[in-house]
Design brief:
Elements: H1 2-54, H2 59-89, H3 94-102, H4 119-125, H5 127-146, H6 156-165, H7 171-187, H8 193-223, H9 233-257, H10 265-290, H11 292-295, H12 299-316, H13 324-349
Helix pairs in contact: 1-9, 1-10, 1-12, 1-13, 2-3, 2-9, 2-10, 5-7, 5-8, 5-9, 5-12, 7-8, 8-9, 12-13
């Protein structure tokens, strides 16, 4: 099963590294490989959450996640998105933004001799609005998970009181708004406070719209004549849209952090996208096929706590430098702790390991 699920990712990674070799030689290969590892370390918690959503989709929509979703992840978020941010922020057309990216100032300077800022400088300058948008989206995702009553809790001393507080109407919205106000008024630079507030508001609106539509159509499908147990049609479409927005939110810190390694958009797309994003998707599929979320009951909890940590890190980064390696390690450590707790839980309860997901949930031929 391992090679069936990860075989495509290994193949795509090999092609990407060969492309990097042809594009920039051995140095480019090393940079692309490092970026791929960075993406996987930053997005492992994303894979766990995606697996929980993917289990609710029919095989058709799962295939779309693995095909169309990959194209969006690679070309949309890792290549076009940074170009569009720079183009809009600097009032340039995308072609000129691409020219800036491919022709950086000599010696890694932040500005050209004529005073124009570099592509890297422009993108980093846009970080407060990017980080706030993604941070608020992820914060609401975290809050709506931990503030919902559940039979099984991991960090019970925190999760149970939060679940009780979640019973108050609009509690999660109030908390999110307070965090946004603190971010804009205390953490972000004074000249960025207004854009941080606007970007954060858009992040919240995006979460409410995508999550609300997904829940609405999922309820329609479940209560309809077919009594579907998995999301299909419009419900599946909005679940897919939800996953793609979630993936975008997770990719923000990776895209910004990649400039500590290279500012070349081609290498970033090859490393973060073709290598990293493909492996994140394979990890997602593997979790679904193995029924890992059912086997290890705290894993989903750990992923959401990691999401909460990442949301706070993104918001903190609006006014302070954050080491990307440390960010990735925070998520990995939290998920490993949840995994270890799940193993202990299973041993104490002596529960049988749940059976893997049915083979027809993800067709074998679709993963080769």
């Amino acid at each position: 099963m391992f090679m069936r699920v990860f075989g495509l990712s290994f193949g795509v990674a090999a092609v990407a590294l060969v492309a990097a070799l042809l594009y920039g030689g051995p140095h480019a290969v090393a940079l692309a490989a490092i970026l791929g590892v960075l993406e996987v370390s930053l997005s492992f918690d994303n894979a766990v959450v995606n697996a929980g959503v993917l289990q609710r989709m029919s095989p058709l929509w799962q295939r779309l996640f693995l095909t169309v979703g990959v194209l969006i992840a690679v070309f949309g978020m890792r290549l076009l998105f940074p170009l569009m941010v720079v183009a809009i922020g600097a009032h340039l057309d995308p072609i000129k933004a691409l020219d800036l990216a491919l022709n950086p100032p000599a010696g890694g300077a932040s500005h050209y001799p004529d005073g124009r800022p570099s592509y890297e400088t422009l993108l980093i300058d846009a970080n407060p609005k990017i980080a706030t948008f993604g941070g608020m989206f992820l914060l609401l995702l975290f809050l709506n998970f931990v503030c919902t009553p559940r039979e099984i809790t991991w960090l019970s001393r925190l999760e149970r009181p939060l679940a009780r507080l979640g019973g108050f109407n609009m509690f999660t919205v109030v908390v999110a708004l307070l965090v946004l106000v603190v971010t804009a008024g205390v953490i972000a630079p004074d000249d960025k406070a207004d854009v941080v507030m606007v970007a954060g508001a858009f992040g919240m609106v995006t979460y409410f719209v995508v999550d609300g539509l997904g829940e609405h159509f999922s309820s329609e499908e479940t209560n309809g004549p077919s009594r579907a147990t998995v999301a299909v049609g419009r419900a599946a479409f909005f679940l897919l849209l939800y996953v793609e927005v979630l993936d975008a939110s997770f990719s923000f810190d990776g895209v910004i952090g990649s400039f500590a390694i290279t500012s070349d958009p081609i290498i970033i797309a090859l490393g973060l996208g073709l290598v990293g994003a493909m492996f994140v998707r394979s990890i997602t599929v593997y979790l679904v096929r193995k029924g890992t979320l059912a086997q290890y009951v705290y894993l989903e909890h750990g992923a959401h706590w990691a999401i909460g940590a990442l949301a706070l890190v993104l918001l903190y980064s609006t006014g302070h430098h954050v080491d990307q390696l440390a960010t990735g390690m925070i998520g990995v450590v939290i998920i490993l702790a949840a995994f270890a707790s799940s193993v202990v839980y299973n041993r104490r309860r002596r529960l049988p390991i749940a059976a893997p997901a049915e083979p027809d949930r993800l067709m074998h031929t679709d993963l080769r």
